[in-house]
Structure formats: structure tokens, C-alpha cells
């Protein structure tokens, strides 16, 4: 019986499946928006922005073209100037650092801690008299220890701008990722928890001055009267994408609950395998409420494990193509970050998405156990 098992196929992410699951509803939305000819800065965008702001309890939310633009505009609106140093964790997408570079700032890469997020001690050690801001990344759907980061910011008079691209709904001590700093960017890239059919993002802020600037920056610097007040960008969230995001956002709590339950299942099936390290589980501590954008483990013999799983039809991904930002030689970083470097020899992401079933998670865990020779 078990010897004749068909080849499994569990892709890391299943775009087509995610569309098929709600195809009729999505097509209705697209048709409705198209029939209204409502494409740029229309009511669907405004309604989605309202829903997002209400959910996070922030004063302002702006749909933008993508989170990378959102970070650039947040940094600019917050007043980061050429030569300002901005501290960020090297375990992130290059976009985090690129945003700093695009406003003329100097991205300063620091190390991660045991929870894979920016290490407060490493931030502290990197502060100079040119440091203007900390750019924590709320990675994998987990919010950093913001108490420690806020304390450092206060001590050195630094701004906090959050890369919350992966963390919509994540909380630390009851506060949402994206609400700690002067501004934050969220991503709606298709593989993000709330993903659209293309690129999309948002900037959220409680700061009235930053909000006003973001509203101008995303639309060519134009105000309501059509007067151009500053050099801006064309970085708007398409109205159609906003409509689709809003429909999915209505079920967001269920989506997060499901993701947490997949993480809980992985933990129950893998926590005794000593060759791997699991991320903090959904019930690990009361301070964190993680939404599990990713399930990123550490694994000994990582590359062999990855191949073993691939041969069984199980898709995995090494985040950022396996290179932390400071290790891209042509970007000119000159720093060694031992915890991050060691982590990148071992990190691997297992499938965690709305299409993967409990049986598939069990199948993945069984394969991992078998690879290490641990009894089922
Ligand atoms: C996805 C992502 C970004 C970039 O988001 P885009 O919307 O694709 O621009 C930035 N930072 C992190 C941590 C991300 O995961």
C-alpha cells in the first residue's frame, strides 16, 4: 500500500490554486470595476484604505504601487536626508536597503538575533552620530522586540520606520506591526499573506505631516487642487487591485488563524527533530502574535534536505535566494555579521499558504523526519 504512493506535488506557493479557489468572486469584482471604468484613485481604493486603517487602528493608510516605493516615500516623508545612516537587518529583501539608498541615505546592515529578527544589541553597536533612523523588518510575519528598539531610538533620538511588508496583522504586546514608528510599508505582492494580482503596497502612519506628504508623493506631488507642491512619484495602488485586496481582507482573521494552525501543526510534527531549528511557535509567548508569512526553519545539511524534498515533489525556498543583503559584493557593504551568515547556511522555508492541507503538512514533516532518520 505505502510502497505504491504516487509522486506528491506540493508546490511552495500555488498561485493558480489561490485564484481558482475564489475565481467567480474575483471575476465579478474585475467585471464590476471595469464596467465602472474605475481604475485610478477611485472609491474601491478609498474603501480599502479605510478598512486597512481601521484594522490597524492607525490614522492614515495609503495604497501605493509596492512596498519598496512605500519605504522610499516613508523615508523621504520622515525627513531622511542624503548622508543619514539608517540601520536595518541584513536578513531582509534588498528592497529594504535600496529604499534607504534611493533617498540618499546610507543603509547600515546589522545582525539578527536568535528569533531571526534584527538584534537590538547589534543596532546599539551600530549607532553613530550620523544615524537618523532604525528600519526594523517585521520578518516572516513576526514583530520584532519593539520595546528594546524603541528604547534605543529614544536614547539616541532616532526615528523608527518599519518594513512591515511581511507582517500585516502581526502584533507585539498587542500592538500591530506598522504602528510603532513614524511610518511603515506593507506589501501586497502576490505571495504575501494579503496578495493581489501583481504589485501593490501600502504606507500606514499616525503622523499627520507624513500622511500629507505620502498623499502628495504617490501622485506626482499634486494636491487636491492640482497644484504641485513637491517632486513626487507615480506610485499609486491600482483601484482594481484595491478592490480585490479588500474582498480578501474581509476574511483576513480566518486567513491568519489558518496560517497559525499550519505553523502549530509543523511544530507538533517536527519539534523533536534535533537536526532542525523551528521558528517560535504560535503559542510560544504572550508578547508575540505571529501571522506566519513564512515558516522558516534552520536545518543541518540544508542543501541535501532541500534536494531530498524536491525529489519527493515538495517545494521549498531559501529566502532572498540565499544571500543576506550585506553579502551582495557589488553593493559595497563592508561588514561581517556572524549570526546572519551562519543562519544563511542553514535556513529553509517550508510550504505555508492557504492552499496547503493538513495532510500535505504531515507528508512534508514525514519526509523531513525520514531524511534525518527520525522515527515517524
Ligand atoms: C516583499 C518585501 C519587500 C518588498 O515589497 P514589494 O511590495 O515587492 O516592493 C520589502 N521588504 C520585505 C521584508 C519583503 O518581504
Summarize this entry quickly.
With about 375 residues, this protein is α/β, with parallel strands linked by helices.
Can you tag this structure with a few keywords?
376 residues, Aspartate Aminotransferase, domain 2, Aspartate Aminotransferase, domain 1, 2 domains, 7-stranded mixed sheet, 13 strands, 14% strand, binds pyridoxal-5'-phosphate
Question: Helix and strand succession?
Answer: HHHEHEHEHEHEEEEEHHHEEEHHEH
What structural category arises from helix and sheet content?
alpha/beta
The largest sheet, given as strand count, sense and whether it forms a barrel, is: 7 strands, mixed
| Annotated CATH topology of the largest domain | Aspartate Aminotransferase, domain 2
Distance between the termini: 17 Å
Q: Cofactors and ligands present?
A: pyridoxal-5'-phosphate
| C-alpha-based Rg, rounded | 21 Å
Tally of separate helices: 13
Strand order, largest beta sheet: 1-9-8-5-4-2-3
Question: Which stretches are poorly predicted, pLDDT < 50 over at least 5 residues?
Answer: none
Number of beta strands: 13
Question: What is the CATH domain class of the largest domain?
Answer: Alpha Beta
Instruction: Provide the CATH superfamily of the largest domain.
Output: Type I PLP-dependent aspartate aminotransferase-like (Major domain)
Portion in strands: 5-15%
